[in-house]
Amino acid sequence: MAARDRLFPAKRGFAVALALVAAGCATTRRPAAAPAHPPSPDEATIAQAKRSFELGREAALSGDSACARDYFGRAIEAVRPAGSNSPPSPELASFSEDMFEAILRYEALVAPPEETAGAEERGAPELSGMETQVINEEEVSRAREAVASEATGAAHDIPIVVNEAVLRMVAMFQNEFHDIIARGLVRSGRYVPMMERVFAEEGIPLDLVQVAMIESSFIPHARSVKSAQGIWQFMARTARQYGLSCNGTVDERNDPEKATRAAARYLSYLHVLFNDWYLTMAAYNAGEGKVLKAMARTGFTDFWQLAASGQLRAQTQSYVPAVLAMTLISKNPPHYGFDIAMEQPLEYETIVLDRPVSLRSLALEPVNLEQLQDLNPELRTDITPHDSAGYILKIPVGTRESMLLAYAAAPTARPPAYRRYVSRSGDTLASIAHRYHVSVQSLADANSLAHKTKIKRGTVILIPQKQPVQVAAKGAPKKGKASVAVSSKSSRPATEKTAAKSYVVRGGDTLYRIALKHGTTVALLMSINSLESGVNIRPGDTLKIPTKGN
After folding, report:
1. Most buried of the four, 80, 403, 417, 496, by CB within 10 Å?
2. How many CB atoms sit inside 10 A of residue 145's CB?
């Protein structure tokens, strides 16, 4: 029997596991009788790791994630002690690899639902309800003929099973969902070339880009009722786990390329768990924990057997056939009744911003605001984030020079401000929003949460802050407090050919009042004086005032 089979049996009684949990993580087994001959160092190491693994496995089966992770950590430490640089023997290396794969599976079994990425309510809103759609036999028969007569000989890099479930999906997409699939295929032209490049770089089968069709219909801002977001429909926690930022300023789940990279790595992880692309797709939809539990309950390791067993929910049963159906259709859309013109592949240039600015300040001919928003869907506001390494902004091809000029003249903007609140027992988004006088929608958006998300005690919640109006203080600046150096250390050149006169700030002045008084704008005042958004102006400060007509 293979080591993997020894470490990961399909079924196991829960009595011993429940007893273990009742006793706590410190529970240890009765020492085994001493062997007749002393074991070799490798044999002793493997025996020690097996004991810890077995305790961790039993804790995982009982649902005790803390104990499971503690014991699994001990098992890994036994075979890979800290500070050891010597290579393991072939026998120990093989055992370690099998044990590590088994640990991944058992940890996934006990991971909280929000850590296992999938949720049955996830997926393209346009395709919701496909698992309950009634398809007549005539439509299925036509779909069977279409698949049988398809003669392009297109290659596939995942196994393609054409059974009744797949044919019913082909028929559904050709009929009831025809217009929805057509729109998705049109959009796919914009993103699939990039996705295939990323998947090739990450070693993922290119045909799996069609998972994005079933997830989102290739809509970058697609959002499910459970707050899965973006083309790949990541939940916030899983997105962060795979390197995507989700905060009040950016939500990189909406960035097609970054989200595709994260999806490729998540799919790779799932394939390590299941060693089967159909189970990998099912786990992407439902979460690996649900699929692993269905496997443990039934003993099945084949997706079609699991689907027939009823241990997977209806949407997941339909999910894999839907991806396979789209893979067939995408290779030859006209053959399946989709006479479409796909969008051109996404192309853009980039510039690096070393300070936050408003997109509106950059939206000057020939670039408009809508183009910038479309190329940068991860931005949650029109203000770019402050990033010490510089924020990479995507811009239309051929506009780099004009965009750099617009950036040089744009005033520094103030990114949205947030305060941190640690939730208490009984808190809800609505109660927190009421307490801090913000809308539930803004609070949910800032934290990438659904309106009805249950807030656990101790969760850090970002509270959007209103931006105060900056007013010059009435009176001279206090001794020891630095006033704004409005005419020195310019962070960028003032707008050329703009003559200026000087104005000494008085008590009660605001930039708006000064601009109104002198027939100019706040933006121009901030630009010519190199002021950052939200800076305090004080009595006695000297501002440059552009002359009228310039």
Report:
1. 403
2. 10
C-alpha to C-alpha distance for 268 and 271, rounded to whole angstroms: 5
Q: What is the pLDDT of residue 543?
A: 84
Per-residue pLDDT of 148-191, as tens digits, reads 998 777 889 999 999 999 999 999 999 999 999 999 999 999 99
Distance CA 357, CA 232 (A): 29
What are the backbone dihedrals phi and psi of residue 418, each rounded to the nearest 5 degrees, phi first?
-135, 150
Residues 473 and 461 in one domain: no
Does 57 map to a domain?
A: yes
- Statement to judge: residues 219 and 327 lie in one domain: yes
β-pairing, 500-504 vs 542-546, is antiparallel
Q: What CATH number is given to the structural domain containing 447?
A: 3.10.350.10
474 and 460 part of one domain: no
Contact (Cβ atoms closer than 8 angstroms) between residue 325 and residue 185? no
Q: Residue 476: which domain range?
A: 469-550
Closest CA to 532 of 511, 504, 505: 511
Burial of 55 (0-12, 13-18, 19+ CB in 10 A): buried
Whole-number Å distance between alpha carbons of 311 and 297:
8
Q: Which residues contact 549 (CB under 8 A, 6 or more apart)?
A: none
Report, as ranges of residue numbers, the positions in the chain whose pLDDT lies below 70. 1-36, 81-87, 97, 101, 104-105, 107-132, 448, 450, 466-500, 507-508, 512, 516, 523, 527, 530, 532-536, 547-550
Q: Nearest-5° angle of CA 27, CA 102, CA 324? A: 140
Helical H runs in 209-368? 211-216, 236-241, 256-274, 277-286, 288-298, 303-309, 314-331, 359-362
Query: Structural domain tally of the chain?
Result: 5
Does residue 240 sit in the same domain as residue 199?
yes
Do 478 and 356 reside in the same domain of the chain?
no
End-to-end alpha-carbon separation of the chain, Å?
84
DSSP 190-236: HHHHHHHHHHHHHT--GGGGGHHHHHHTT-TT-B-TT--BTTTTB-H
User: Rounded to two decimals, what is the model's pTM?
Assistant: 0.65
Residue 370: what residue type? E
Give the whole-angstrom CA distance, residue 108 versus residue 110: 5
The secondary structure of 435-472, three-state, reads HCCCCHHHHHHHCCCCCCCCCCCCCEEEEEECCCCCEC
Q: Which residues of 275-296 are buried (b: 16+ CB within 10 A; e: fewer)?
A: ebbbbbbbbbbbbbbbbbbbbb
Q: 460 and 474: one domain?
A: no
Residue identified by tokens 């992770």 is 69
